[in-house]
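In response to the reviewer comment on reproducibility (Comment 2.3), we provide here a single inverse folding case reported in full, input and output, so that an independent group could reproduce the run without further information from us. The structure tokens appear first.
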């Protein structure tokens, strides 16, 4: 059993949050050495279990959740690390399907903070510049400590951003990886072309690791070539996820035709029944080189089929064997995906979705169209968008998809101002019926009405927190 090799302070949850918020000034730092040194200082808690790492622009959180659920169904003691949270930071760390306690979260944070202080004290004594330890650095180290102390067998680690410099990549215990797909997001940090972003995410493919490439990696061919070249360089044979029907990946793939690659293993999937109302099941089959999994189901829209198939292939690759059919069905149908096409209130319906870039908005709207093809009969839209996203692209897709629009602004410092967002929707031809200064006033004003809230992860989270 893992033990922290030095004394740490006893933090309350509030104290842990204060220490975490103090790191926000450092922003995002493309540096792995700081996390590697902190883990080494802690006696490498990551050496006490195995990890599965998942990268991608869209779909990686859902794929991570499905992978964790499948591995739990296979009898493994599983941890899950995702980001961002919807309501509370403890949601980012789960053990056996439950967020860790505030006490364990604070203990992990105390270990991470102390290890960073010890590393930086040693660097200063040696005349070296101390590391700027970021919020995500601390959270990642804290999570690995919490997971080691919990005695997990495997942790599913969702990359926060990119892959090459993501803090999760500092873990030494990664045995299997997947990339769900590529889109233009975080371009200031990852690059402004699909190929450049693919290169950053492909860096998680390393010698000795099993690899699954989701449907979003297949097109354009120049993007797929980036991944296949990385696989060749690492001596890795990837499993390619393919849809039997292009309609099953609406919004998940870029334009182009997925190549066959007869020499590479494939996991194909097909949707056998689509949900035509909220809460109805999606049914699908997944055919891998190891087994055919028929009559699978999940209570989610059809765009989740690609994520389910990726998770099935990844869990298989990690275990090195076929999955138990009955356990797989149960794991998928009971797996929660908070903030992803989530019905918060059935009557009148309030639906939230964390789509936050044009590609994920397209996938979300394809699911909306399956439930209600007639735009005039859909609920009103409540929208908030972060200013550093492709705001124009998101608005262009959402504006014609709803009969009317309300706009608001989340508490994020990156939130686009309400009046600016309202103006963009009006320019796109939408009927803007209200502008709310914050999400609390929006949900209060819309109490008793039906609406769909989407446009940013922070909006989905704030609405979920207020209506919980």
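Designed residues, in position order:
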């Amino acid at each position: 059993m893992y033990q922290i090799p030095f004394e740490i302070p006893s933090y309350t949850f509030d104290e842990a949050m204060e220490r975490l918020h103090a790191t926000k000034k450092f922003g995002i730092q493309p540096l792995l050495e700081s996390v590697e040194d902190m883990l080494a200082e802690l006696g490498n808690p990551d050496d006490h279990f195995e990890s599965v790492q998942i990268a991608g622009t869209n779909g990686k959180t859902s794929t991570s959740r499905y992978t964790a659920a499948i591995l739990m169904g296979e009898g493994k003691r599983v941890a899950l690390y995702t980001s961002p949270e919807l309501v509370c930071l403890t949601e980012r760390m789960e053990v056996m399907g439950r967020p860790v306690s505030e006490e364990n979260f604070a203990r992990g944070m105390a270990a991470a903070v102390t290890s960073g202080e010890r590393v930086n004290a040693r660097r200063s004594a040696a005349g070296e510049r101390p590391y700027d330890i970021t919020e995500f650095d601390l959270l990642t180290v804290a999570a690995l400590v919490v997971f080691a102390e919990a005695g997990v067998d495997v942790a599913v680690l969702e990359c926060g951003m990119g892959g090459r410099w993501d803090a999760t990549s500092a873990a030494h215990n990664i045995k299997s990886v997947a990339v769900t797909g590529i889109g233009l997001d975080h371009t200031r940090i990852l690059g402004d072309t699909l190929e450049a972003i693919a290169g950053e995410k492909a860096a998680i493919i390393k010698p000795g690791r099993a690899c699954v490439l989701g449907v979003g990696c297949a097109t354009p061919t120049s993007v797929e070539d980036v991944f296949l070249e990385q696989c060749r360089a690492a001596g890795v044979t990837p499993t390619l996820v393919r849809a039997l029907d292009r309609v099953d990946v609406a919004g998940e793939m870029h334009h182009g035709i997925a190549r066959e690659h007869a020499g590479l293993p494939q996991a194909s999937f097909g949707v056998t029944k689509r949900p035509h109302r909220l809460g109805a099941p999606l049914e699908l089959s997944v055919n891998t080189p190891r087994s055919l999994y028929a009559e699978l189901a999940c209570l989610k829209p059809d765009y989740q089929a690609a994520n389910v198939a990726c998770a099935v292939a990844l869990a298989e690759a990690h275990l090195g064997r076929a999955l138990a059919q009955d356990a797989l069905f149960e794991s998928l149908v009971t797996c929660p995906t908070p903030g992803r096409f989530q019905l918060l209130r059935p009557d009148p319906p309030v639906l939230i979705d964390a789509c936050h870039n044009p590609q994920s908005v397209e996938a979300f709207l394809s699911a909306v169209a399956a439930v209600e093809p007639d735009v005039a009969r859909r609920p009103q839209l409540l929208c908030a968008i972060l200013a550093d996203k492709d705001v124009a692209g998101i608005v262009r897709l959402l504006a014609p998809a709803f009969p009317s629009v309300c706009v608001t602004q989340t508490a994020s410092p990156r939130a686009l101002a309400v009046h600016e967002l309202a103006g963009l929707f009006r320019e796109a031809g939408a009927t803007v019926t209200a502008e709310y200064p914050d999400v609390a006033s929006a949900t209060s004003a819309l109490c008793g009405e039906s609406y769909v809230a989407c446009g940013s992860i922070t909006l989905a989270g704030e609405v979920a927190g207020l209506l919980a």
